[in-house]
Amino acid sequence: PDALRAPVIFAVMLLRGLMDPKEKAENLVGEILQAIGNQDSFTFHIPGWEPEDKEVGLQWVKSQIWEGFYVDFKVEQEKKRVLLETWEFGEPEPAWE
Length: 97
Fold this sequence. Notes:
The chain is built from 3 helices and 3 strands; from the N terminus they run ααβαββ.
């Protein structure tokens, strides 16, 4: 239910904030790999970049987290692509279109 959404999001963000950046990065990379079935055929769409391959996309995710940014992703299975978003603490989380 919507009434639980905000507290759950807060709890997830709090837990992510308590982890060290390397652990956060590895966890998110693991989530992405699981979502795409670890397939190499997916392209990664980084804001402001041309589509990249899995290796570059996952390295970008790690580097953003290591630098203190938040990262989120959305998988479009039928188009074989991973859409990525990033934002800083205090900024609103980008909305998926």
